[in-house]
Amino acid sequence: MKSNLKFLLLLILIYHPNSSFSATGIPNCELISTVTRCTVSHSKLTKNITRLVEIKDRTGARHAALYFRYSKRQKLDILLTQIEDTLGHVIRVLKRSDFKDRNAFDESTLFVDDFIRSCDLNYNIYPYRIRYQYESSQDEFTQLVDWDPYLDWDVPTRYARLEVIVPRDYPVKIYCHLVGEPVKREMDGNVSYTVEVTQVKLPVQEIYNLTSSELGMRVWMIPAKFDWDGPGSSESWEEYGKWINHLNQGTDDLPETEKALVLNMVKKKVGKLDIIDTLYRYLQDRTRYIAVYVGVGGLKPYPASYVCTNKYGDCKALAVYMQALLKVAGITSFYTLVQAGDGAEGIIPEMPTNQFNHAILTIPLGKDTMFLDCTRKNVPAGYFGTFTQGREACLVVPGAARLIKIPFLKSSEVLEEHHHTYTLAAFAPCKVEIENKLRGNAFDLLKGIQEQLNQSESEFILRERYFNFPSFDLNHWEIKQTQKDSAFLILNASLQLANYLKGYGEELGFQINPIYLPNFENPGKRVSPVRLEYPVNIADDYVYQLTGLRKGSYTPEDKEIISKFGRYSQKITFEGGNILFHREFELYRGEYSLEDYAEFYDFIKKIKSLKISFLLTKF
Amino acid sequence: MKLLLLCILSLNFFPLFAQQFSQEYGKVPLGELTLQKYDKDTAAEAVILYDMGKSYFTHDDNGFSVIFERKTKVKILKSAGIENAQVNIPYYFEGNIFEKVYDVEATSYNIENGLIKRVVLDNKTIYDEKKNDYWRFKKFAIPNVRPGTVIEYKYSIQSPYLFNLRDWDFQSKIPCVYSEYTTLMIPFYEYIYIMKGKDKFDVFENKTDNGIENNFGTIKYNDVIYKFGMKDVPAFRDESFMASIDDNLIGMDFQLANIHHPNGANIEVMSTWPKVCNDMLKESSVGKFLTQAEKSAPEVMNMAEINTKTPLERMEYIVNLVKNNFSWNGYFSKYASNSLKEFLKDKKGNSANINLYLTGLLRAAGLKADPVLISTRDNGMVYPSYPFLSFLNSFVVLVNIDGKNYLTDATEPLCPFDMIPPVCINSGGLILKKDGQDWVKLATSNISRVDEAIKIHFSPELDSLNFTLSASYSNYEAMEIKDSYKDDNKAIHEYLLQKGYANVDSLETSNFKDSNKNYLIKYHAKAAAEMMGDKIYISPFLIEPPATNPLKQASRTYKIDFNFPFGRGFSATIDIPSGYKADFIPQPYSLNNNLMTIDYKIVSSAEDKIIITGYYAFKNAVYEPTDYKVLKMFYNDIIKKFNEKVVLVKK
After folding, report:
1. Is B216 helix (H, G, I), strand (E, B) or coil?
2. What is the average per-residue pLDDT within B69-74?
3. Are A81 and A60 in contact (CB under 8 A)?
4. What's the pLDDT at B38?
5. Residues of A numbered 279-338 whose beta carbons fall under 8 angstroms of chain B's beta carbons: which are they?
6. Which residue of A20, B114, B270, B452 shows the fewest CB atoms closer than 10 Å?
7. A6, A452 in Cβ contact below 8 A?
8. What is the ipTM score, two decimals?
9. What Rg do the C-alpha atoms of chain A give, in angstroms?
């Protein structure tokens, strides 16, 4: 898995909040009932899902467009799709020709052989109901069902039911969250597990929230034993690891020429680190991330020989290729699965199954451990960034596996230093020279820009994120990496500003943007704790060189705000006709309970509400 | 056989090519591999060294088909350019008649250990992706690609579709050293082409192929070769304020104009607009649908009641009737996809269903109404000089009441009854009637406005501004905001908080469903007062005026298309707190020309109250590139003036 920056940024910039509640606060869509029935019989898993949804007005109609994703390993039957009035009279039944099939398309994937079947159950007289039932079946599977009672987090659910029927001699593992254990019944040689909920309380999405699986109801069932490209077990992580080992078996098939090349590359290298650096650099320089999911369902890596030939692969293929390179050089590394990216759900340790979307390598280095993300370009060996920091991961060792923890990023590793030099004049255009030294999340963003975006796309994002001025001409910009594998980047830019100095009566004034912080919910409204997955650390140094201007009737005061959540300070000095502004801000990583929230909110509010305005007098 | 040249061309002949880059497939000189950057565009992430296409005809027992061959060579200069090594070849696939992609080859070239390393694409890694019911892609990623690599690929497509000879774009997102399209024409099919984005080619040749003579039945003929080339084509990067990127890219569209059968019969494909209209009216999904719709009117309308209304009331009533009872399925089309019976049952259809039905009902109510064939903005420009139906892709409706024309449409419920959705505003529309050839202007000169009345008074502690804001949105501005927030108070509330206001309450909206009235949003909120020393600084229009200039580039070579004229008005009433007086009030400012207007006025400045109004408008929907710098300057003036501050000081 690799996020597509172009897609994500576009999504962020075009997003408008849309909820399923109308102006009166009445929901515009309601899930009247949803019934899921899963059956395991003769090693075949069949899922039958029936839903009845009421669309109350035009704004709720987005829920009437249905999309069913299925893979080549699954058989999908749409059994019923119809529009009804609220009394249950059928208005329209969809025909076969009303469905469209197309390949699924993922932004970060070259090709996936999954399909999407879609149809539209829009009608023009509100309210109306849509009823649909579909069934999927498959012979090979590692999970039974991962169920929640929601259609969407803003659509109320009136009734939801899950029933799972398995043979009596078919052990399962069950994970339930915010919902009671399923009722277990035995009948006719089978065991059924049933969960029913009514008038479901909707989870609330808040800023710096817990993960969605922590906030919502969930029933997740997996078979203790399964057969998917060979027999496997989810009894324990150790057992699960055996199956991963089976999938990866034989993937270290480097051609002899490549082996010879590796040996030649490392023959003069001394020490493990030097060898890792050399091979990691070789991997980064010669390969690229391309994902193709055909046939095997995206869990089995393409072998090292595939990467060796094509010089591309997905995270799994690049990891096994790198593992093979290291092996030739005599270095042991372990295939490691991890949940990467924003919005990771968190690992449920009691469910040893696939909970991951990314593969990396773990290399033991004496007392230390190095994590190698083989999809990253031009980053130092061992750099993992905000994409995977602090996550639990599944370390796959020969014949077994176990959960480990990737370390958190330290405050110094996320420090963003912004150096701006302004030239301000009463009657001439204002200019600013920018030199930002960026680490952590900012480093990852800039790396993405550097690796994936062309000039105009890059400028579009830089303008939004780093050149936060009303109007300006961008004379020059450049992203520099002082060393090819440094964990920071320098963003240099030169801008001519329009309207930077504003009229404040007879004086001129300018404002320094406050530290960007999101609009947190008022303490009375917040319902869940705050979780900061990694720290924020910013240091600003701005120099204002004045021409034809001098200190005016107002200058902001120095400030220092310290709390257990972080710290803020600003200091202003005048030196040789120039204004020097220095600011530091740090927000610590951590999880803060609801009891702490009012204090946290107050800290954030104090910083957000700081108005940093300077007035200057013309002379 | 001839190729009609409807563009005025200067027929300059250039030597084919005279740069250091090779155009021979499979030949990659060392200079191309060692190239570090492209001098003519140093920011380029990749550069097309050549892109050459060729279309020619072949025939078998089933008749003629067109073969399209393409070969392309690209130098990858930066990481961001690597995406050019992922190739998508679109091809048409409908039922039993489909295009065939074959002879796909791709190779990467790198210098490795001082030697040229050549890696060929394994055909097993070419994937076939179904995009929708008609289009598929052949997709592949060229192996062994990184900055510095030269990639080269070629493929052929056999197509039974002779109506559209493959179009050609000389320009793309990366610069191109040389792009060339060659067509080998035969006497049986005659095409015209339309050149876009430029008015002349760098290379143009036409000559009769004196090679092997071709036979079709008893007819012997030689191909006539046309070659079109462009050199040093810049990257296409600025995509802001454009109706359709395709209209601005340098390229050429081909259309079949005539079919000359070997038996001497001649079928005119490009005919005249009157014939286009007559043919459309003969189509059952157009003419018949329209007639049936008119006849079916009494099923949905009380004709006696209709007749009591004035003509304009009738039009409004019927447009709303269709909008409220039928939904658009999201597809634009010039052919009704459902029969009238299906449409009335499903209450849903494409734009032709909806607007032809609307026309029928309007006619049944005794109004003079005609469908208007249009090209939506995404679909590109219409060229009235070239009578081709294929340029047009949808309908709106023209109603004439007492000699006055009204354009209307029923696909978009949020649009006022006498306006068409912004997406339909593009070039002109052809009025569909027997022998019709009249065009109607689709653009509106009505300015879509947002007007905000702001009443500001201070909190007792003078640390914040309490204000009431009443915003009124007209025409397309109303449509846009309604579409964004769907009248969802929670979403609007969230938006206002995000914008920076606090304590938002008493939020009310009006006229969401009544698209003929301005949409209103009213609320109370709080903004921080800017107190510095003993002075208070107030932005009369708060943070409502624009703060950033949307015109970001230094210059512009394309028209600036805002879609519709727009304006914003402000009126601020500031209660001066007791003990304070005005220390500074901004100067009035006014400007009015044929491009825009700015009017900033101090209406009154009493001891306890200041009233300031401001209005600006961009009067045209589309501006010439030569206006760009002036527009950009105006925008800066607006930002500066409308954000100026009133200063209050202790008495």
Report:
1. strand
2. 98
3. no
4. 94
5. 285-286, 288, 290, 292, 294, 309-312
6. B114
7. yes
8. 0.88
9. 28
Q: CB A609 to CB B139 under 8 A? A: no
Cα-based torsion angle of the residue sequence B292, B298, B299, B302 in order, rounded to the nearest 10 degrees: 150
Confidence of residue A297 (pLDDT cuts 50, 70, 90): low
Length of chain A: 619
Q: How far apart are the first and last CA of chain B?
A: 90
Q: Examine the pLDDT at B163 and tell me if it is beyond 90.
A: no
Q: Choose the weakest-confidence range: A38-47, B234-243, B609-618.
A: B234-243
Distance from B555 to chain A by nearest Cα, in Å? Answer: 10
A225-227 and A183-187 strand pairing: unpaired
**Nearest-CA distance from B128 to chain A in Å?**
9
Question: What residue has token string 């400030």?
Answer: A559
Test B530 with A613 for CB contact under 8 angstroms: yes
A105/B129 touch (CB, cutoff 8 Å), yes or no: yes
Q: Is pLDDT of A273 > 60?
A: yes
Say which residue, B297 or A26, is predicted with more confidence: B297
Instruction: List all residues of chain B from 271 to 300 with a beta carbon under 8 Å from chain A.
Output: none
Residue A21 with chain B: CB contacts under 8 Å = 488, 490
Characterize A21-46 residue by residue with b for buried, 16 or more Cβ atoms within 10 angstroms of its Cβ, and e for exposed. Answer: bbbeeebbbbbbbbbbbbbbeeeebb
Residue B584 is predicted with a pLDDT of: 92
Q: Tell which B residues from 211 to 240 touch A, by Cβ distance under 8 Å.
A: 237-239
Q: Decide if B141 and A451 are in contact by the 8 Å CB cutoff.
A: no
Q: How far apart are CA B294 and CA B79, in angstroms?
A: 60
Instruction: Scan residues 62-81 of A and list those with Cβ closer than 8 Å to B.
Output: none
Residues of A in contact with B45 (CB under 8 A): 454-455
**Contact partners, residue A125, CB within 8 Å, separation at least 6:** B325, B347
The pTM of this model reads 0.87
Nearest Cα of chain A lies from the Cα of B630 at a distance, in angstroms, of 14
Q: Tell me, letter by letter, the H, E, C secondary structure of A455-511.
A: HHHHHHHHHHHCCCCCEEEEEEEEEECCCCCCCCEEEEEEEEEECCCEEECCEEEEE
Backbone dihedral angles phi then psi of residue A141, each to the nearest 5 degrees: -160, 155
With a pLDDT cut of 70, the percent of chain B lying above it is 97
- Report the residue from A311, A456, A474 with minimal CB separation from B143: A311
Query: From the CB of residue A481, how many other CB atoms can be counted at a distance below 10 Å?
Result: 17
- Residue B54: in which H helix or E strand, if any? strand B46-60
Residue B111 above 50 pLDDT?
Answer: yes
Which residues of chain A does B141 touch, with a Cβ-Cβ cutoff of 8 Å? 110, 290, 292, 310, 312
DSSP state of A21: B
pLDDT of residue B271 exceeding 80: no
Segment B588-591 long-range contacts (CB within 8 Å, at least 24 positions apart): B589/B637, B589/B641, B591/B634, B591/B637
Identify whether the C-beta of residue B480 lies closer than 8 Å to the C-beta of residue B415: no
Q: Which residues pair with A539 in a beta bridge?
A: A417, A584
Residue B275 scores a pLDDT above 70: yes
pLDDT digits (tens, 9 = 90+) for A556-587: 999 999 999 999 999 999 998 899 999 999 99
* Number of residues written out for chain B: 651
Is residue A127 reached through a cis peptide bond, with omega within 30 degrees of 0 on the bond before it? yes
Distance CA A407, CA A369 (A): 10
Examine the pLDDT at B143 and tell me if it is beyond 90. Answer: yes
Closest by CA to B323, choosing from B411, B239, B448, is B411
| A 103-122 → B contacts, CB under 8 A | 103, 105, 110-111, 115, 120, 122
Q: Would you call B537 and A110 a contact, using CB atoms and an 8 Å cutoff?
A: no
Burial A493-530 (b: 16+ CB within 10 A, else e): bebbbbbbbbbbbebbbbebeebeeeebbeeeebebbb
Contact A4/B at CB under 8 A: no
